[in-house]
Amino acid sequence: MRSRPLRASVSDEVPGRPPQRGLAHALHVSRNAKVGALAGVGLAVGAYAFRVLELFGPFAGTREYPVLGPEGWFAVLAFVLASATALLVTAVLTLVSAYRLLKEV
Prior knowledge:
The chain is mainly α. Helix content is 64%, strand content 0%.
């Protein structure tokens, strides 16, 4: 039985450059994303609870919230707040990691 020739593996990496995976690992991007997501969700849940559960009492002025009602609209706003906060915290932590890595070199 004749063996098949080995196929060259296809990679997205550019020859002569360090692998991109190494950079993300060195900057701790996955850890920073987890911390950012946790911070974003925590802030959004806190803001949603204070607004919808009226922990500081009822808010002045009333409005009509079509289709979703106030809880639905504030849930959408909480999602936006969580996403933006997660991205901001992840970016800041990654920049701090890059700065520390540059200081070591």
